[in-house]
Amino acid sequence: MVAATPLTVTTAVKQEFGFRVSDFRRFRSTAMLATIWGFSLAAIIPLLFVFYFVTSKGVGGLNWDFFTALPAPVGQEGGGMANAIWGSLMIVGMAACIGVPVGVLTGVFLSEFGEGKFAATLRFTVDLMTSVPSIILGLFIYTILVVPMNGFSAYAGAVALAVIMFPIVAKTTEEVLKLIPDHIREAGLALGIPRWKVIISIVLKGSVGPVATGVILAVARVMGETAPLLFTAFGNSFWSESPSQPTATLPVAIYQYAISPFKQWHEQAWAGALVLVMIVFFANLITRVIMRGSGVKRSR
Predict the structure, then answer these.
(1) Position 228 in a domain
(2) Helix intervals (H) in the chain
(3) How many structural domains is the chain composed of?
């Protein structure tokens, strides 16, 4: 009995089905590639609809006064959301200064020294904080900051958003650093480089792009948060002279305008939603362009 070889099997398949095996493989590869493109398009379509719907509703309310003027009193025409736009940028900026360093350092610790009971407890805490509703975190900050300070403030809002950002940044950093092969760390240690320097100069520096992506996701998440700010920053119809005072924010202003009975306020709410979406979009776009221009590539 003669054993079958790949050549005889291919010939037999060709004679039986009338096509080559390579044609079938090419067809299967094309079909799978088309499936991947189809699912990718299905994921992009909702985003395009959101952009189209928010743009169509909000572009009519955009004008120079919207970006430079304070909200108009009830019953008067005009006005804008200048204080809310500035308040959102200020609070999110302060939150990033608090939450990003703590989150990155926590992620580095869990990735590089993530053994033992303390690391397991910390990892469980980070996972648990990711799933806690933001309104609960807002109430928590209200209890420990707003009540003792006897007033709402931008500081309290920044801390609330920083608490929301922290687990996202920490988890992303941990998972990204775990993708760095161990032999890269071992090579640095073999050259006599201290471990802390290996982590900073080799491991973390080689993962700047993915870590920055995680930071952007965290910023995008908190940029549209409303519930925590209702209990912390609260809102203000005027310019806040100090971060220790109640401060207007874009999500809270959109919420207040959307539930009002005035048509003009509804138009400004849509305009505010469009500005909020554009801020997040351009923040993502600019960061990716900067990372690509600086030669930072995603770790493989």
Answers:
(1) yes
(2) 6-17, 21-58, 64-68, 82-112, 117-131, 134-141, 147-149, 154-178, 182-190, 195-198, 208-223, 227-231, 250-258, 263-293
(3) 2
Picking from 284, 270, 231, 288, the residue whose alpha carbon sits closest to that of residue 62 is 270
pTM: 0.84
Range of the domain at 223: 62-293
Here the tokens at position 287 are 């960061």
**What are the CA-CA distances from residue 223 to residues 89, 125, 141, 226 (Å)?**
8, 23, 17, 9
Q: What is the pLDDT of residues 212-244, one digit of tens each?
A: 888 988 998 899 899 999 999 999 989 988 999
Would you state the structure tokens that stand for residue 180, as one six-digit string? Answer: 């760095």
Give the residue among 179, 98, 192 at the shortest CA–CA distance from 145. Answer: 98
Give the tokens for residue 193.
Answer: 């480089």
Cα 277 from chain centroid? 12
What is d(CA 300, CA 292) in angstroms, rounded to the nearest whole number? 16
In a domain, 298, yes or no: no
Helix axis angle, 82-112 to 208-223, nearest 10°: 140
Are 42 and 112 in a shared domain?
no
Please give the angle made by the CA atoms of 69, 74 and 76, to the nearest 5 degrees: 65
Q: Which of 11, 37, 59 lies at the terminal end of a domain, its last residue?
A: 59
Residues 84 and 179 in one domain: yes
Last residue of a domain, one of 10, 42, 59: 59
Beta-carbon contacts of residue 99 (< 8 Å; ≥ 6 apart): 161, 162, 163, 164, 165, 166, 169, 218
